[in-house]
Amino acid sequence: MSRLTIDDRRERSLVTVADALLLPVAIRRVFRHRPTVPPRRILCFRLERLGDLLMTLPALADLRALAPDASIDLVVGSWNRDLASAIAAVDRVETLDADWLTRGATRGATPIGLALKAAAWRSRRYDLAINFEPDIRTNIAIAAAGARCAVGFGSGGGGALLDEVLEFRTFESFPGLRRALSELLAVIASSPNRFVLTSRYIARTERALAAASPQFVVVPMPALPGDETERMVADALGVGASNGGTTTGGESVADIARLVQALSEGRPAYTRAIVESMASRAGHGVADPVAALTALLEPDTRLSSQCAFSYELRLHRARGYGALKGILEILSEQEPLTLTEISKRLGRTPGSTKDYLSWLEDVDLVLAHQKRYRFRDPLLRVWARLHCQPTPPAAEKIGREVQRYAATCLPATLEHV
């Protein structure tokens, strides 16, 4: 029986019991006749989200190369139908929406429903079925399809239903690397040289150095001070001491700088982007930080691309891409929320949701305060509300969201800018 890698204790216990009940099936499958000819009809399962399907593309290409004459059917969630239809290695696309993957009011199929739908494909007489997901529920569906040979992962349970059980390799599969970071820190601490180490991950850095030598000191990147932001605004708008600290339109540089500071939270990259955008638009009227930020959040702009890069980079450094993205979409609509509120909207148990939230905290995407969770970066939340949608946002929606964000940042200053 494969070692289970299920984080939620309750789910792991249930799957352990289910695997024990399936042991007679495993013994029976040992004596099944294995096909000796190349497969002609192949069924593949990948029901999860976009990122999971993208990571399966190399495997599908390899499968096509190994079975160039086979007919390959791919089963995906309906949200991935268009992408799946564009995969050259796939001949036919089927859609199945599992209830633990659907969002909003839409209801998907239960594990029994998935198995019944898969059983209806028995007439196709698949030679090979491959489940790319380590999940007992989809392993049951694979078995129900009745392929002559079923292949998948046993680490999520249901390995007894498979003819070939593969190992789902994680970082723990390479024990020689477990202490690499601590050993590196020990070598640095013993060196007579001085080092400056940088990281974009605050939580991970603090955890890594918690047990390290006290020689290491964490110095967070501070927000830009207000006078520095004011200097940047003055330089960008060409306002000197002779102007009395006002623009040609009679606006106070200090007031503009305060709003820029509030919109960017003093983050240097955001501050610079807003100031430069505002300066490029100053010739069209008053210097308006809100309008500048609105322009920056349009699709394919520098700041929008920067937010997309940070968002995806951090998600891919964590575990459980699909569920993590679902949590961020929930928080982008409303925050702060408690663990119970998030788990209900996500459709997961509180235990597994807590694990997902801890992984989001680990890559600094969310922050917990008094047991309520919110985005660590408020401006990234605005970007997520706008751009983590099926279609690009209209200009009116961008303007509305930025005005709403600005009102929460510094409502008393808006009337002066």
Keywords:
single chain, 417 residues, alpha/beta, Rossmann fold, 4 domains, three-stranded antiparallel sheet, 9 strands, globular, disordered C terminus
Question: In words, what does this structure look like?
Answer:
By secondary structure, the chain is of the alpha/beta class. The protein folds into 4 domains: 9-171, Glycogen Phosphorylase B (Rossmann fold, 3-Layer(aba) Sandwich); 179-210, no CATH class; 226-291, no CATH class; 302-392, Arc Repressor Mutant, subunit A (Orthogonal Bundle). Helices cover 48% and strands 9% of the residues. The protein has a 6-stranded parallel sheet with strand order 3-2-1-4-5-6, with helices on both faces. A 3-stranded antiparallel sheet has the order 7-9-8. Strand 8 and strand 9 form a beta hairpin. Helix 5 runs parallel beside helix 6, helix 14 packs across helix 17 (378-387) and helix 17 runs antiparallel to helix 18. The longest helix has 17 residues, at 50-66. The N and C termini lie far apart (66 Å). Mean pLDDT is 84; it is low at 412-417.
Q: Main beta sheet: strand number and arrangement?
A: 6 strands, parallel
Query: What's the β-strand tally?
Result: 9
DSSP helix count? Answer: 18
Radius of gyration: 27 Å
Report the CATH topology name of the largest domain: Rossmann fold
Strand ordering within the main sheet:
3-2-1-4-5-6
**Gross geometry:** globular
Order of helices and strands: HHEHEHEHEHEEHHHHHHHHEHHEEHH
Structural class: alpha/beta
Structural domain tally: 4
Cα(first) to Cα(last) distance is 66 Å
CATH class of the largest domain: Alpha Beta
Low-confidence stretches: 412-417
Strand-residue proportion? 5-15%
Percentage of helical residues?
Answer: 40-55%
Mean pLDDT: 84
Specify the CATH homologous superfamily of the largest domain: Glycogen Phosphorylase B
